[in-house]
Sequence to fold (1436 residues):
Amino acid sequence: MARDKSVVVGHRSLVVGRSKKDQRLTDDQRLTTDDQRPTTISPRRVVIDALVPEIDGGRFPIKRTVGDRVEVVATVFADGHDLLNVVLRDRRTTYNAEPAEHAEQVFSASSASSALYVDAGWRETPMTLAAPGTDRFVAGFAVDALGWHEYQVIGWVDVFRSWRRDLEIKAAAGQDVSLELLEGSMIVRDAARRNAAGTEPATGGRESDWLLTQADALSDSTPIGDRLAVARADSLDAAMAARADRGAATASEIRRVWVDRARARFGAWYEMFPRSAGSAADRSGTFAEAARHLPSIAALGFDVVYLPPIHPIGTSFRKGRDNSLVAGPGDPGSPWAIGSRAGGHTAIDPALGTIDDFHAFQDEAVRAGLEIALDLAWQCSPDHPWVREHPEWFRHRPDGTIKYAENPPKRYQDIYPFDFESDDWPALWRALLDVALFWIGHGVRIFRVDNPHTKTFGFWQWFIDEIHLRHPDVIFLSEAFTRPAPMLYLAKAGFTQSYTYFTWRTTKAELTEYFTELTSTDVREYLRPNLFANTPDILHAFLQHGGRPAFETRLLLAATLGASYGIYSGFELCEGEAVPGTEEYAHSEKYEYRKRDWDRPGHIKPLIARVNAIRRAHTALQHDWSLRFHETDNPQIIAYSKTGGGERLLMVINLDPHHMQHGHVRADIDSTYPYTVHDLLDDVRYGWHGDWNYVRLDPGVRQGHILRLPPVSSNLEV
Amino acid sequence: MARDKSVVVGHRSLVVGRSKKDQRLTDDQRLTTDDQRPTTISPRRVVIDALVPEIDGGRFPIKRTVGDRVEVVATVFADGHDLLNVVLRDRRTTYNAEPAEHAEQVFSASSASSALYVDAGWRETPMTLAAPGTDRFVAGFAVDALGWHEYQVIGWVDVFRSWRRDLEIKAAAGQDVSLELLEGSMIVRDAARRNAAGTEPATGGRESDWLLTQADALSDSTPIGDRLAVARADSLDAAMAARADRGAATASEIRRVWVDRARARFGAWYEMFPRSAGSAADRSGTFAEAARHLPSIAALGFDVVYLPPIHPIGTSFRKGRDNSLVAGPGDPGSPWAIGSRAGGHTAIDPALGTIDDFHAFQDEAVRAGLEIALDLAWQCSPDHPWVREHPEWFRHRPDGTIKYAENPPKRYQDIYPFDFESDDWPALWRALLDVALFWIGHGVRIFRVDNPHTKTFGFWQWFIDEIHLRHPDVIFLSEAFTRPAPMLYLAKAGFTQSYTYFTWRTTKAELTEYFTELTSTDVREYLRPNLFANTPDILHAFLQHGGRPAFETRLLLAATLGASYGIYSGFELCEGEAVPGTEEYAHSEKYEYRKRDWDRPGHIKPLIARVNAIRRAHTALQHDWSLRFHETDNPQIIAYSKTGGGERLLMVINLDPHHMQHGHVRADIDSTYPYTVHDLLDDVRYGWHGDWNYVRLDPGVRQGHILRLPPVSSNLEV
Fold:
């Protein structure tokens, strides 16, 4: 079938297939693109409007993970009152060219190749009216493979069914329908001449012949009643549906879905510094030593181990302990000050080991059922080889020095940011791509990206796209603690997951408002939250002053509000000492080796293990979209549910780490009979009845519940 | 300056001007348009997102009238923390080719001409941050001429001001800023080399030289304090602003505004059948007789007189009185059954007169300060000349007859609808365009369009566009009583005004919900309501059973909720007799001459005159967007305000035509002192105090108030 060409009605509102009627209007007739008036005219009757999901008019794709559904709704109507057929089409698109060629094309002056994508062929799903009078049609499809997927809505007038409906009305009103039957006969005859793709000429065949006999039967001289029976036959209806004339169909613009693997949506993350895994506090740990920690991390139920940068660290302007300007003799410096004589972004800090040591570390991770995530930090220490090799990739000062990072009056003299706008930007961008490809080549498939909002946004969209071209299974986590607009934009532009404002949302009102926005608005179509409860940069006051119960509260919130969540090591030990008046850890691991007693009393490891086990066993916690907040009569008690896998889980959490809090929770259960709820955390069952029920949460006893509510008769699938 | 070419970052998200950096990427490098991946890459730093107003991602223009403002908001940000300049550009676009040629091009195979539009040149307005941390920039512009207008947002990094801000911070922190001053010197030097358009090379001149001296002053060896003074000088700031480097600017897509004349927004409409203006009930009135009514219509304060179709009426299957299937000997038939031997859409019913009589009627209208609106009804009676001359423009039945209009089981055998999809559709469309142009040639500039939702939507968009090309002052009123989606779509597609669901919104809740939607959502950007209180097809039960007070209530509602509103003649006489159980008038004027006693007691003409006078004298009622509903404690009392011209008017209306209703209205006035409100309807003043105040409305005494509230200190401009 000829590839659809765009024929635009109005200002790019409708993209339609080619039909005989449109042949009168060729590309020559398109007005200049200076002219934004309709470029061609068409008598297409069907209008497709307001298609969702759609991000910024289709500028950005939505995201899903393998196995998810996409529910599409569109407003579809035509003039008059004919019946419409509306169909949702979807297809996987597979990349067809050598990725290396492709990246080159972007930068070279050579002609673009054609047909970079091949279609897998459209799959079709009929759309049904959501509610009478709304013109809103709905249908869905499941995405079953990584990578790009497309969807589109097609609508056309169902001439046969419109005719048949009117025939019935007239017959019921006692009107003479002999002409109508003749008209129907002509409609059926036309269909017989079309082939099953709805185009002419027909390939003939048995079905064509059969239709012709039906056409004859409609127009012969048998009694009207007999002919009405012919018209009403299901077999005729089915045959006509298969040969619908789509020649005048209207098609929406094609919309895209980027499909990730399941880990993109669901996972428990653990951040650790391998260099702190050593047996002595004054030297770096090695990958071998860090590998010995992996089984216990796995035993806690984590899925991903995220490592800050593992590269050589610069010595010039190296930061000392607690971010002091001058490093002491044994101070390791910040891992984000990347590069030394030992190498740059594709090298490993010799103190950690070699590339083989890294592979062994990865092997241990695989054995433990963990996946390793690395940190991409696009910046250099003054000692990075690129500073010498590619000075043009940096901004220079009049005195010849390179401009270090700063946020006046703060100076970060251990960091040189790249100049993404430099005249040599294509080579720089290509080099950064190659760094990522290097680590992917060494088996890494997850990257946490450091401060992407301080690098050109266009770079990220290109970069992520290029990686995904080759490796659609790669996950990118955006660490962009910045204003909402750039934070959201990075997610639109391709980041698989994003850190959020979660750490600063501590009250019931804040959490309710923020997570309603994240899970109930169209932000959810492109931004996947990863709720880290702490990071090496963020130790919130709530944790500083709340003691162990505060850590329990924040752990429960993160792990149940977020299908993806994380902690930075030390959280399980309730490490809460900060530099006073700040959110910085005292003796921050960013600037020194931090040797810990992993069994120090007061830890919350059993709780973490229990929560992670519950997450793995209950589908409801592996998605975010079903999140609903429930009323409580105590502002210190927050309650929310998630639904999935035939279950509904209700989380009830005490936001006060210091005091017992009690009150009532509204379960949204309409029941006259008592029922049992099962707290999955401590395997206790409670007898509840009706909608509002009493809860009591004592810090030190339990900081929250994860209650499995009884099954309801309705389908609880997400 | 070279015309901006599109360089796309991401999926058509940013359209940017050409810069040196982008030269590496030529059109050759664009990937195939099959491939929806980014077509070119650019290191542009600024992102422009979420521009409003915008209809359907820019597919449709917004509407304004001459003198209106367009307030534009956009989310603009870049990586890092540099300061941005964001500018709103707008320009008028003027059509540059012969319209006749243009219409031909659409249908012919000839090449499209270029440069159909000339630019009037961009006007620029700086945008300011709406609120800190939001990245939302706002600015506005006024549209001052009919026709197309465009707007666009441009953003670029303000290198100089970013530098100067950081300089101040560092100087205040006591840091050594000598390198910074050198850098600033280089920035200024670069600017000196650019000309005032922000491009290189400079044309030299005094300002260039002066900048060079400033650059020198920044980098010489005078004390830092002196050099800081140079950096801070307003004169330097202004000169640098004038020479901003826009080479790397990001531009949004261009959005369009269609600007109508004021009557498109504001006017009181009166619908009359000229054929009923005769002195005898059994014959048609003439234009001359109808003209004698115009002064009294004008005296009532109306602006537009709308006439149902004035063309010859078919005789075949002519409808008789009260829509009977067979017309009696003297029955005139429905004016919408257009066409007879006497002519079609460009002819006048001989019973009304000749084209000269029509001109005389128009002259009388002009003298009375009225404008005439005609009815465009795209359909034919069986006797219309086109039925014989262009059978291909209609659908045919197997027996050779033409398919008449129907909505099964209803049949309208006096009406043949056009086949907008016929193989000869371009000629049909062109003929309909010519009909409109014919009447425009005879001085008509307003058309009410009959049932546009039963004609192909693409036709309307083309048709209105073609007319506006030649006559931007033409107003089109859409009479599409249909489901919301097509109704709204017709407004998007170009209709100047639209009938609404107003006639069926009679309760406080219904009116509040509906008019909030119409005036507070983005529907208002493209749909202008015209609130007809009755039509020849719609006599609502509220008017049938409510008596005179019901007419007063609906008149007050229509005329104050809507900057544009209308009545169909007879309303002023409180004609409320319907065919029982329907909304059809008894003895409908659609099917017979209806001679009226225009002074029949019980009329509400003084009220109408008073309300129309108030509308003309108070700007607040000439716009819809400031509409706000006010609380009342009686569900039968509705209250709402409009603001404009420095005033706020509060309408309080009794929705019960049968009973006195009283209660309290919330004025939204925060005042400890008593104040006076002035009822403009009957020139009575009331003493009010505080927020809630008592009202009492007795049917027969007053059905509502139009209260002018006291001025407040804040700016009440719309």
Remarks:
- Residues 1-39, 99-116, 714-718 of chain A have pLDDT under 50 and may be disordered.
- Chain A touches chain B through 103 residues (CB under 8 Å).
- The CA atoms of residues 207 and 239 of chain A lie 8 Å apart.
- Chain A has 16 helices and 33 strands.
